[in-house]
Amino acid sequence: MQLLRVRLYSALLAVMTPSAIKAQTAPDNIAVTVGRSAAADPGPICTDRPTKSNAACTVPEGMVQIEADLFSWTRTRSGPARADVFVYSNPTLKYGLGPHSDIQLAIAPLIEVRTRSSGQTFSQTGVGDLTLRFKQRLTRPNDSLQIALIPFVKVPTARRGIGNGEWEGGLIVPVQAPLGKATLTVVPQVNLLAGALSPSDRHLEFQAVFNVAFPIAPRTTLATELWTSQNWDPAGTVRQYSADVAVSHLIDSALQVDAGGNFGLNQATPDLQIYVGVSLRF
Questions:
Q1: Where do the domains of the chain lie, and which CATH numbers do they carry?
Q2: What is this structure's pTM?
Q3: pLDDT of 67-106, one tens digit each?
């Protein structure tokens, strides 16, 4: 059960922290449009979803953008025990502060955690943690190499069992470059976390994403990625690895729908996560 608790804690971190889980590279013409004023031509919507990567682009100045899971399900097994996490919407609200920066607020209004062990099922529901992020792009709009900084902080609004009741934060550094018709995204991330078994023991976690996204139709993009987390918890280092795939489709320049799946590659990683989502800019 202790291993299941640690894996469930890791799964909840992934589900409830947008900085760690959802991102999608922009359509290939976003680099020449994102720097223009919103009134002139904001270009096609560019989002931090659907995969675990993050894009370097920001919301156009003065515009509002909503990116949300409509539903996600995460399954974690440990021997005969298992845990399921259901998230019924997980919106991120963004506002463009300037031509190269935006501010972001994310919270899941309803999360359900079901744990089954020894023939008994336990269920807990509640609101998720609140995450505040700021994104600053460091490169010019027309540069082929795009880099951004995303510092973030997690506010412990979730009850224990859904969250850990602790303030946490970190820094994400999306780096994007063209790769033929595709886009390569590499995202290192460093987090300062509370211990899974002893919250007062603060420690570092390192994450990395290697993402390749390429168009498969004029408005449709397929993304594949490898993700890892190296969590140096005082109770024992937890190493996680997953292979992820997602598809996104632009209905119009301001509306995107997506779906994806994340597949755990070792015992410490949640076995499966499936989600569908939508993004809207106005």
A1: 2-281 (2.40.160.40)
A2: 0.87
A3: 999 999 999 998 889 999 999 999 999 999 999 999 999 9
> SS3 sequence, the chain?
CHHHHHHHHHHHHHHHCHHHHCECCCCCCHHHCCCCCCCCCCCCCCCCCCEECCCCCCCCCCCEEEEEEEEEEEEEEECCEEEEEEECCEEEEEEEEECCEEEEEEECCCEEEEEEECCEEEEEEECCCEEEEEEEECCCCCCCCEEEEEEEEEECCCCECCECCCCEEEEECCEEEEECCEEEEEEEEEEEEECCCCCCCEEEEEEEEEEEEEEEECCEEEEEEEEEEEECCCCCCEEEEEEEEEEEEEEECCEEEEEEEEEECCCCCCCEEEEEEEEEEC
**CA gap 149, 163 in Å, rounded:** 26
CA 25 – CA 213 distance, rounded (Å): 7
